[in-house]
Amino acid sequence: MNLTKQIVLEIEGRLATVTLNQPDVMNAMDGVMMRELADIVEELKGNSAVQVVLFRGAGRAFSAGGNVKAMLDPRGPMKMEDIMVDLSRLALSLYSMPQITIASVHGAAAGLGCSLAIACDVVIAEETSKIAMNFIGIGLVPDGGGHFFLKERVGTAKAKQLIWSGEVLDGKRAMQIGLVDQVVPDGDAWNTAQQRAQLILHSPTASMVASKNILHAAGCAELERVLALESEAQAAMRRTSDHREGIQAFVEKRKPNFTGQ
Predict the structure, then answer these.
(1) Is 59 left (phi over 0), alpha (psi -120 to 50) or beta?
(2) How many angstroms separate the CA atoms of 129 and 135, rounded?
(3) What distance in Å separates the CA atoms of residue 41 and residue 97, rounded to the nearest whole number?
(4) Left if phi > 0, otherwise alpha if psi is -120 to 50, otherwise beta: which for 253?
(5) In terms of C-beta density within 10 A (0-12 exposed, 13-18 middle, 19 or more buried), how is residue 215 classed?
(6) What letter does residue 259 receive in the DSSP assignment?
(7) Which member of 44, 94, 140, 238 has the lowest number of beta carbons within 10 Å of its beta carbon?
């Protein structure tokens, strides 16, 4: 077991499990956690002995996304340029890694947490999961390849509606539109994900990965372009008054007063 500050990596034979390990904040990610996650996924990508990777969240959620309070902390400002580099590393590694990836989703998978979950090859969600690409609530755009992965799963037209509305979907609704691959009763996501992992490990995994590589080959260049555009847009959005109002309203637990500025 490799225990880092905020991420736990366990490898047992051909199976790796990555656990987001900040349960006190519903696995909301600050810059350190994002960097650690990108490092671990890159490390796994180069580990030819591992064939399946499970992603899960400790506690009561998969991940509530980016840590909004950390954005306001003057003692540890989140440098958007560094963060976007790490998120680009994470998204590209996830999409191109020669392993089958499975997300076990319970509770919230919001914002960056949603991007991470839907980047996986298989997404298993519990019925009352809360899945949302809700960057709009704090005046930002999806990152971590969120635009790309959302478009891959639901198409451009639906992706726009989900991004613009920030709609929160439960597991059943998410499966109806193709955002997740399997919905299970509450409390069953982790066991189901482990069972799926074992099924894959007892399948011709080399054949499965070969098909994944073929299907993803053309998308790698597009993902790189999307990540560059996300980085540019996010830096611009961080400077807007709507973003400042959005995070202030979030912290104060009130409805934001956006002005389009």
Answers:
(1) left
(2) 18
(3) 8
(4) left
(5) exposed
(6) -
(7) 238
Q: Quick one: tokens of 191?
A: 């066991």
The per-residue pLDDT string of the chain (261 residues; one tens digit each, 9 = 90 and over) reads 544 589 999 999 999 999 999 999 999 999 999 999 999 999 999 999 999 999 999 999 999 998 877 766 656 556 777 899 999 999 999 999 999 999 999 999 999 999 999 999 999 999 999 999 999 999 999 999 999 999 999 999 999 999 999 999 999 999 999 999 999 999 999 999 999 999 999 999 999 999 999 999 999 999 999 999 999 999 999 999 999 999 889 889 899 999 999
Alpha-carbon span 243 to 134, nearest angstrom? 13
Residue 221 identity: A
Q: How many CA atoms lie within 13 A of 103 on its CB side?
A: 31
Taking the whole predicted model, whether its pTM rises above 0.90 is answered as: yes
In whole angstroms, what is the distance from residue 261 CA to residue 255 CA?
17
Paired sense of beta strands 15-20 and 7-12, if any: antiparallel
Indicate the residue type of 215: L
- Contacts of residue 99, Cβ cutoff 8 Å, sequence gap at least 6: 16, 44, 45, 50, 51, 52, 53, 209
d(CA 133, CA 97): 24
Structure tokens at 170: 């439960």
